[in-house]
Amino acid sequence: MSEFVEMLPANTVSTGSRLGIQYMDKLKKLPLQYIETKFQLISLDPLVLFDHKGIILDVNEATVKTTGRSRKELTGTLFADNFTDPARAHNGAMLVFETGEVRDYELVMKGSKGVETIVSYNASVYKDQEGEVLGAFAAARDITERRHAEDEIQNLQHYNRGLIEASLDPLVTFDRKGIILDVNEATVKATGRSRKELIGTPFADYFTDPARAHKGAMLVFETGEVRDYELVMKGSKGAETIVSYNASLYKDQKGIVVGVFAAARDITALKRSQAELLRERDKVKESMRKLVEMQERLVRSERFAAIGEAASYLSHEIKNPLMVIGGLAAQVERAISTHHAECRKLEIVRGEIKRLESMLMDVRDFTRPSKPQKELLDMNSAIEKTLALMENDLTARGINCEKLLDRRLPLLFFDPEQIKQVLINLTKNAVEAMPDGGRLVISSGLENEHVIVSITDSGIGMSPEATRKMFDPFFTTKKRGTGLGLAVSCKIMEDHEGEISVQSKEGKGTTVRVLLPINTGPNQDAQLE
Ligand SMILES: Nc1ncnc2c1ncn2[C@@H]1O[C@H](COP(=O)(O)OP(=O)(O)O)[C@@H](O)[C@H]1O
Ligand SMILES: [Mg+2]
User: Fold this and answer.
1) Which residues are 59's β-sheet partners?
2) Which distant-in-sequence residues (6+ apart) come within 8 Å of 512 by Cβ?
3) What is the pLDDT of residues 53-80, one digit of tens each?
4) DSSP type of residue 508
5) With a 6 A CB cut-off, is 164 part of the ligand 1 pocket?
6) Atom 19 of ligand 1 has which residue's CA nearest to it?
7) Given pLDDT bands bounded at 50, 70 and 90, which one contains residue 253?
8) Most buried of the four, 150, 158, 504, 520, by CB within 10 Å?
9) Does residue 345 line the site of ligand 1, with CB under 6 A?
10) Distance (Å, rounded) from C-alpha 268 to C-alpha 242?
């Protein structure tokens, strides 16, 4: 028995001073037992007295029950021996003497038949009248049930957390101000930021359009939920993820709104394939358009051939009589005096003969175009030469001409005479479309392996109907037009494997574009034959 018991004074326990002298002996030996039996102060919590070495001085009935060992067995043994972790128990016991008290010190008490009880200790030293420490008084509270309940809650939380973490979709909760409360691993991955970095920062900060993200976040508080809200999430290293959010309010047990729970779905791949689909659709559309165009061209060239044959026959038939008429007119003119009243009429006859002759030349160009004699040449100089030829016409009509020539154009193969004819035809049409002056822009440039020349006027423009027919041979809206200029130009471009296209707006003006491939050689036609 320890010395402490010998020294235990009557007033150690609060009721001590009022105890009768006859109980003093018992009290000195086993104070807890004494109190319990004498005053029926039966504590349900296990109580233990131990000395500064951790040796048990006395225990109460509850300790006996919990440990399954008798008072006699326990007294004089180490307090720490009754726990699954004796070292921790001993440390706790010693801590009481060091600091005077210990609160909520958890230990697992070993019971009989292997039953374990989780207890939480409150312990303090007790002193004699002189203030000298006599020992420690420790009261345990059985918290096994509470702990099990807590464990269960924790397990449940763990389970919920597990579900959240298992989600491949980035999940976020945020408060009324849009400040992030929590995130799952998928969000960490998507943003490339740690959970710690994310929590406490504005939700909106992680999107390319923070204003829209914030608006979406606030919308949830206004309407209770938001569906399919698309945002672009900024990832680490500039990677961007297109996400679609579904978000709703979440409440605590009392039904008070705590924040928003938002789940994002990565729809980047979906968006990408949608864009791809659109692109493919556009490609199909473009191919369709080309096909229709090709068919039109085919029909046109067939028609051209037929018209060409007729024109060739007619021009041949007209040419000889026209020469006879011209010759006879010249004879008559010589026979009469220059002051004769009919002289004026003869002049008109000659003028008309000239016009018909020039028309026949156009017809000849159209029906029997010579094969292009291609040389490696510079398109810009062809443009310059054409404009030099047209200069008088331009100034006479008060037309302002602007050249925008790309000086880096590569040389390309073309027949200089034929291409000059095309450029003259187009420029003439532009000039004729601006009877009251205007602006003419000629530009050259390189696009997808093609040299492009475009001629834009600010003239009268064309109706859609005229635009459709303009390349037809003999289609003209001019009093003295032949309607052959564009048909011939079209044929020449075809012989150069080039293209010619038009954009026009009535009353606004017209742009004609000529396209020539840069990679054709001089003898391609020869090779084909
Ligand atoms: N730049 C243009 N602006 C307005 N209409 C044009 C233009 N170019 C051609 N056209 C239209 O196309 C028709 C055919 O042109 P074209 O084949 O050169 O024959 P022509 O000039 O002899 O009429 C013209 O009569 C005119 O109606
Ligand atoms: Mg013309």
Assistant:
1) 48
2) 426, 429, 430, 454, 455, 456, 500, 501, 502
3) 999 999 998 899 888 899 999 999 999 9
4) T
5) no
6) 483
7) confident
8) 504
9) no
10) 5
Work out which ligand 1 atom sits closest to the CA atom of 482. 22
Q: How far does the centroid of ligand 1 lie from the alpha carbon of residue 493, in Å?
A: 17
- Average per-residue pLDDT in the chain? 86
| CA atoms of 42 and 48, how far apart (whole Å) | 13
User: Among the atoms of ligand 1, which is closest to the Cα of residue 471?
Assistant: 17
CATH 3.30.450.20 for the 167-266 domain, yes or no: yes
Mutation pick for ligand 1 pocket among 421, 456, 469, 486 (CB with most ligand atoms within 8 Å): 486
Residue 303 clears pLDDT 50, i.e. is over it:
yes
Which range has the worst mean pLDDT, 194-198, 420-424, 478-482?
478-482
Whether the Cβ atoms of residue 307 and residue 473 lie closer than 8 Å to each other = yes
Atom 8 in ligand 1: which residue has the minimum CA distance? 429
CATH number belonging to the domain at 372-529, selected among 1.10.357.10, 3.30.565.10, 3.90.1150.10, 3.60.110.10: 3.30.565.10
How many A from CA of 477 to the centre of ligand 1? 7
- Read off the amino acid at residue 12: T
Ligand 1 close to Cβ of residue 473 (< 6 A): no
Across the range 291-301, mean pLDDT stands at 80
Q: State in Å: Cα 199 to ligand 2 middle.
A: 74
Q: How confident is the model at residue 341 (pLDDT cuts 50, 70, 90)?
A: confident
456 vs 445: CA distance, rounded Å: 14
State if residue 247 touches ligand 1 by the CB under 6 angstroms criterion: no
Establish whether domains 3-148 and 167-266 are of one fold.
Answer: yes
Q: How many CB atoms lie within 10 A of CB 461?
A: 17
Ligand 1, closest atom to CA 455? 1
Is the shortest distance between the CB of 462 and ligand 1 below 6 Å?
A: yes
Residues 6+ apart with CB under 8 A from 21: none
Task: Kindly report, residue by residue over 91-121, the tens digit of the pLDDT.
Answer: 999 999 999 999 999 999 998 788 888 999 9
Kindly report the CATH number that applies to the domain delimited by 3-148. Answer: 3.30.450.20
Between helix 268-335 and helix 485-495 the angle, nearest 10°, is: 120
| 429 close to ligand 1 (CB < 6 Angstrom) | yes
